[in-house]
Design goal:
The chain is α+β, with helices and mostly antiparallel strands. The protein has eleven helices and 14 strands. The protein has a domain of about 100 residues: CO dehydrogenase flavoprotein, C-terminal domain (Enolase-like, domain 1, 2-Layer Sandwich).
């Protein structure tokens, strides 16, 4: 591992100032992905800006109208899973958080870190896209449809800091995944939601360019919310990835199976 500087800001303003002026700086959240990448030489930041001492970046808040929940970026997966507010209003999101990794990962990993990293097999991107959430940064608000740009790529500018995510409370929602038995990442994960704007279906773990919406399924569910409505809809394998865990064809099959089961569960 290369040498690097280390800073511990205690406010978001200081954190943004520390990272914004240095193109080789990286924010450190839970460190579940970044530190491993640094050990392998895949990431070589000159400066780490540790966000673990910034109180503004922790917590879960139900918005005044009760129609949304805002989760701060440094909130741990275990905290989301155990939250009574999340469990009562978006149980699918609480269940998703409780199935991330193992106990150690859930007690260190964070919502903001997961989204900023945008691993193509991560769970949270499916929830953000599936619920039509809004990612709030220190400079702007970014709609879920505009946030994810590709493999490990997001709309975040250099030095831009994820502050929180606002999740609209859906009418119905469910998340199911076929997980890798070792890493517990999603070989395929499908988040379905019936929102105020209509059905949304988000798929993680399968796309050649990361998380994506299955719009033909959404259109069918808008006509009839049932597993039967999407029974004949197939996701083209050509748009999916193949690796040592599963072929594109197998992932296409899993998307269809998990989507139907998720709709039934919701």
């Amino acid at each position: 591992m290369n040498t690097f500087g280390y800073q511990e800001p205690t406010s978001t303003a200081n954190a943004a100032a520390s990272a914004g002026g240095n193109p080789d700086a990286r924010y450190l959240a839970g460190g579940q992905s970044l530190l491993a990448a640094m050990k392998l030489g895949l990431a070589t930041p000159a400066e780490l800006v540790d966000l673990n001492h910034v109180p503004e970046l922790r917590g879960i808040k139900v918005e005044a109208n009760g129609a949304a929940i805002t989760i701060a970026a440094m909130t741990r997966h275990a905290e989301v899973a155990a939250s009574l507010e999340v469990g009562a209003r978006i149980p699918a999101l609480a269940g998703l958080a409780g199935a991330i990794g193992d106990r150690q990962v859930r007690n260190r990993g964070t919502l903001g870190g997961s989204l900023a990293n945008n691993d193509p097999a991560a769970d949270y991107p499916a929830a953000v896209l599936g619920l039509g959430a809004t990612v709030n940064t220190n400079t702007r608000q970014v709609a879920a449809d505009d946030f994810f740009r590709g493999l490990f790529e997001t709309a975040l500018a250099p030095g831009e800091l994820v502050m929180s995510v606002t999740f609209p409370v859906p009418k119905k929602a469910a998340y199911l995944k076929f997980r890798n038995p070792a890493s517990r990442f999603a070989v395929v994960g499908v988040f379905v939601a019936l929102t105020a704007q209509g059905p949304r279906v988000a798929v993680t773990g399968a796309g050649a360019r990361g998380v994506f919406r299955a719009k033909p399924m959404e259109q069918a569910l808008a006509r009839e919310w049932s597993a039967r409505a999407i029974e004949s809809i197939a996701i083209p394998a050509a748009d999916l990835q193949s690796d040592l865990h599963a072929s594109a064809e197998y992932r296409a099959h899993l998307v269809s199976v998990l989507a139907r089961r998720a709709v039934a569960a919701a």
